[in-house]
Write a structure and sequence with these properties.
With 702 residues, this protein is of the alpha/beta class. It has 25 helices and 27 strands. It has a nine-stranded mixed sheet, with helices on both faces. It has an eight-stranded mixed sheet with strand order 5-6-7-2-10-11-1-12. A two-stranded antiparallel ribbon has the order 3-4. Helix 2 packs across helix 3, helix 15 packs across helix 16 and helix 22 packs across helix 24. The relative contact order is 0.08.
Length: 702
């Protein structure tokens, strides 16, 4: 009886489980797919990307009429999707290139023109935005849902819950849909030309090698169409090394994703930011003959009244306002707008713009006015880059050091080895919150200089890095207390360099570092650096150092006579703070001096050289500043300015090491250090008399 009761209970349990499975199966089944609502509309767009963009996306690519430039770009994208090829479209900001890129990828996949489409952006965050935008269209665009129900209805059935993908069925058959963070696999619906197709989005500098997908029928799919949307950031565009790295990723990785048996089709939609940036180079037919491309400017021809009405009267009206009066800028803009309306025919005459719809209808009256507002508000430099695709070449940059100036200084002497004829070694440590940069330089007669070694602490796992993207930091190695981490880092760097014996090329000489200077400019670390130097076991071989910007109108560091016990040299002097000696130097003067040595021809006995190896990071940082010649009544000075977005820490290390060499006694032709001011010698009897007088005075004041 008991056995039968247990058997009945077990049967009921199994029945409940089976009914639950059936309920789940039925709940996961999306049923029959609806018919296409408008077959004619869908068929009409199959062979026309432009019609697809304007028909199915009324609130983005269909919002305003396309210009002739848009139509030409769209035709290129369509041709690339259908027939393949490599195209680069350099267009201005506001051209809707990102939206066109995303929607064009949908056209390629939904109509079965391509099976695996990938969109690459400059960074992972931008790639996430792209795939999110595509997902939104598939899940919320009613026009797409009406005409592509075999795709959109299964997507909508997920209700934004990716965990439903594995159990989703249509008519009892699994759809194999996937809805991942960066990848979409379209549902495999019987008769669908896009069933099982893939859309993915990646950051250009992320992990993209081996990008592939195995379909439900066991086929291995690789990308066959790629859209690269704005592949560079402002920071990377300013870095020759990063431009080269991104170009190599595009050419060596992205363009090889399809394998050797299939040619991948690729479209790059981007904006030129700097001269010789990644996009600027890609558009150079001499460098990249396999690519077709075009630069599309916002203004094809400026107005006949450009210098008169626009850049004189209109500009004056728009820019004349009180910065501290609320609403005065709006008043100035209104007056300028009224002036434009009163003189519109004359001001528009001769001007040709790319897109007549490109303006703010609430504040502007035409695309011509919008273009001139951008030119006036942002300046010619920004306008020529962001809107015209022809950035101005910075003449100041051309007068400073160039990366090739540094690359050409390499000689066949290994790292850590000192060339013949150099007998003095100096080190400078540039202190940052996350890293300590350092450089060891060897010096010889009349400031013959050589970079023996350089790097950063903690040591990074790659040869090229920026301060911003350093993976291994002081905090990770020594804890989050900034001062303590820097102190520990200085201990490690000093021990590594000051206790080291350096071999000299082709002889038995062994050299040690004569002087190590540490950057103490940062207020938060001044105490740490001084305390480290004061208590260091290496004594006077370590010296806190302060670089000073001395302009054309200021008194030079070496003009002032030395105080008692101070030394004054070539644009440097020693001083004392709380009994702690430190070194002050003129950054402008020393940068100009070192740059002149770097520019000497190879073979010059006073030239500047580098150890054997690749020096892309050093070359970039040593060319990160430009000299601006400034003249005053007193003198002419090259004032060095940092190029925005660039690192200059190793450049500072090279300069600081040169100052340290001068401090140790190395001098250039005609440059001699002034002797220290003589200390007054006081006898013991005089000291005792002074002490007695002081005690008497103190006693009398009680």
């Amino acid at each position: 009886m008991v056995a039968k009761s247990k058997e009945a209970i077990e049967n009921r349990r199994k029945g409940t489980l089976e009914r639950g499975r059936e309920t789940t199966r039925l709940g996961a089944d999306i049923g029959a797919i609806a018919q296409v609502a408008n077959p004619e509309r869908r068929a009409a767009c199959r062979e026309s990307l432009e019609l697809f963009l304007t028909t199915y996306f009324p609130y983005s690519t269909g919002l305003s009429p396309f210009s002739d430039d848009h139509k030409r770009v769209i035709t290129r994208i369509q041709d690339c999707i259908i027939r393949g090829g490599r195209f680069c479209n350099a267009v201005y900001r506001g051209f809707a290139k990102s939206t066109i890129s995303e929607n064009a990828l949908l056209w390629a996949i939904l109509y079965g023109h391509r099976r695996f489409g990938a969109i690459f952006a400059a960074e992972a965050g931008l790639a996430d935005k792209a795939i999110t935008s595509i997902k939104t269209e598939l899940s919320d665009n009613d026009l797409l849902a009406e005409d592509f129900p075999e795709v959109c209805l299964p997507v909508r059935a997920l209700e934004g819950k990716p965990q439903r993908c594995s159990s989703q069925t249509a008519g009892g058959k699994r759809t194999h849909i996937q809805w991942k963070k960066d990848t979409i696999v379209l549902p495999a619906i019987e008769g669908s030309v896009s069933g099982g197709a893939i859309i993915t989005s990646k950051g250009l500098t992320g992990s993209i090698l081996g990008l592939r997908h195995k379909s439900a029928d066991g086929k291995q799919l690789r990308p066959d169409f790629v859209i690269v949307d704005d592949p560079q950031t402002r920071e990377s565009a300013k870095s020759p090394m990063q431009c080269q790295a991104r170009l190599e990723i595009l050419l060596k990785s992205v363009m090889k994703l399809a394998g050797h048996t299939t040619s991948i089709a690729c479209v790059v939609n981007a904006t030129v930011i700097q001269v010789d940036d990644m996009v600027d180079q890609l558009l150079d037919q001499g460098k990249h003959p396999a690519w077709q491309g075009e630069r599309i400017p916002m203004v094809r021809q400026f107005a006949k009244a450009h210098d008169g009405l626009w850049m004189d009267k209109y500009r004056e009206l728009r820019c004349t306002f009180s910065s501290d009066v609320v609403g005065d800028q709006a008043r100035a803009h209104t007056e300028a707008n009224e002036f434009y309306l009163a003189n519109r025919a004359e001001m528009d005459d001769g001007c040709m713009v790319s897109w007549a719809s490109c303006f703010d209808p609430e504040r502007e009256n035409s695309a011509i006015q919008h273009a001139y507002n951008a030119l006036i508000d942002d300046g010619e430099d920004v306008f020529m880059s962001e809107f015209q695709q022809t950035p101005l070449k910075d003449e100041a940059t051309s007068t400073g050091l160039q990366p090739d100036d540094i690359r050409r200084r390499v000689i066949p002497v290994p790292r850590w080895i000192v060339p013949r004829g150099l007998d003095t070694l100096t080190v400078f440590v540039d202190v940052q919150q996350t890293l300590l940069y350092w450089a060891v330089l060897g010096w010889g007669h009349q400031f013959r200089g050589h970079v023996v070694a350089y790097g950063a602490y903690p040591e990074q796992p790659r040869a090229y890095f920026t301060l911003r993207d350093a993976k291994k930091t002081l905090a990770k190695v020594h804890g989050n207390n900034v001062e303590a981490a820097i102190h520990s880092g200085l201990e490690q760097v000093a021990a590594m360099l000051l206790d080291r014996e350096f071999a000299r090329e082709d002889d038995d000489a062994v050299l040690r570092v004569s002087q190590l200077c540490i950057d103490a400019n940062w207020a938060q670390t001044q105490g740490v650096v001084r305390d480290f130097a004061r208590r260091s076991k290496w004594g006077p071989r370590i010296l806190p150092t302060h670089g000073r910007f001395v302009g054309a109108s200021g008194q030079t560091i070496s003009d002032k006579p030395p105080d008692r016990g101070e030394r004054v040299g070539a644009n440097w002097r020693t001083s004392t703070i709380g009994r702690q000696r430190h070194l002050l130097y003129d950054t402008n003067a020393w940068k100009t001096f070192v740059a002149s040595r770097v520019k000497l021809p190879m073979g010059d006995p006073l030239g500047f050289t580098l150890h054997d190896g690749q020096h892309e990071m050093l070359a970039e940082q040593m060319s990160s500043e430009v000299p601006i010649r400034v003249e005053s009544k007193m003198r002419v000075v090259d004032e060095w300015k940092l190029i925005p977005g660039r690192d200059n820490h190793l450049w500072d290390c090279v300069i600081g090491s040169a100052v340290a060499a001068s401090f140790t006694g190395i001098s250039a032709v005609g440059v001699q250090a002034k002797p220290a001011a003589a200390r007054k010698v006081i006898s013991r009897e005089e000291m005792a008399a002074k002490r007695a007088a002081l005690l008497s005075k103190l006693g009398g004041n009680r």
